Amino acid sequence: MEQQRANTSLNEVSAPETQDVNLDCSLAGYDYSLPNELIAQNPVFPRDSSRLLVVNSPTTGIKTAPLHHIFRDLPDLLRANDLLVINDTKVIPARLYGHKSTGAEIEVLLLEERQYNCWLALVKPGKRFKLGAKIFFAPRRLEARTEQDCHPHPNRLTATVVETDTATGGRLLHFDVPEGKPLVEVLDQFGEIPLPPYITASTAADEQYQTVYAQKPGAIAAPTAGLHFTPELLSKLCDGGVNQGFITLHVGVGTFRPVEIEDVTNHQMHEEWISVPPATVEQIRATKAAGGRIIAVGTTVVRALEGAAQSGDLQAFCGKTDLFIHPGYQWRVIDGLITNFHLPRSSLLMLVSALIGRERLLNIYREAIASKYRFYSFGDAMLILPEGRGVIS
């Protein structure tokens, strides 16, 4: 039955929406079925050999099917004077495994640093993890855990619960770091790169879950649209006159936190830290003045640029944004988008729907499923060209 739905013609008329239910605002309107075998467990090699579904017309997904390309075709699909805006965040080894003083095992996922060596984290199991409780971490290279792992040691890490966080259900942990170092400087010894929960059988190396241009540590998940780029592809794009600008958004719980309320317009995004530097703002203004287009590499870039333009005009910005983009949003900065395929009922699916329309997007996803595209973080990509934008009513 699922495959039968996946092969539905783009021209087939969908069931009419009832007058009292606006599916653009309803959580149920962002559901779709995906065969498990299409959830990518490993990236392709080389990175730019992934597939690329191209939306190049306002009728794509309504009257015409998307175009099928390979990601390395990107220089042929963009124009000289276009500007690719890229997220240079770097994923940190944010998942740690430790023990309580009782010996009970604890899993910690760091979310963001609130103060020096004081981090908001999800703790599992966490319901009974009270203020003052301690967690002890041994370096990953130690072969065996002993009773000493539950006591301070010069080469071990200790965390103390100092506060609870109702917004995330997490805990604020203060870390006692060996030699008084910043926690980020020792995470390679204690933590591991946290792959998403739907990746259950991966053999990927840590560097395969980083973009080739990752520079600024702070993310707990990769900006996955950027995983398809190689240094050679970036160089070829430059040679063709496609320029590159950078922003930073440290991917946090706001990106992957599920939407749980039926009226999606009432969903509250968790804040994420962004930096849109003055140099990038100037590049964007110069590009638009010269008739070029702004192509965002990933939904994180969209949130950063649009978040920095909430006053009406794009301004350099460094701080946090809780911007939630869904159908009806009035775009201020971006013209096109490179993005991966997103989970059902996710805020990311709603963001892309705001660019091309929910029904169109779900039709395009059906085409991708029928064509056996690979989904999610290690999966294939989609390019929405500026001429493919538009919401068909």
TrEMBL record:
Compartments, as annotated in UniProt: Cytoplasm
- Where is the major localization of this protein? cytoplasm
GO function terms (MF aspect): S-adenosylmethionine:tRNA ribosyltransferase-isomerase activity
Q: Where is the signal peptide?
A: none
Q: Name one GO cellular component term.
A: cytoplasm
Q: What does this protein do?
A: Transfers and isomerizes the ribose moiety from AdoMet to the 7-aminomethyl group of 7-deazaguanine (preQ1-tRNA) to give epoxyqueuosine (oQ-tRNA).
PANTHER family listed in its UniProt record: S-ADENOSYLMETHIONINE:TRNA RIBOSYLTRANSFERASE-ISOMERASE
Instruction: Provide the protein name.
Output: S-adenosylmethionine:tRNA ribosyltransferase-isomerase
Give the encoding gene's name.
Answer: queA
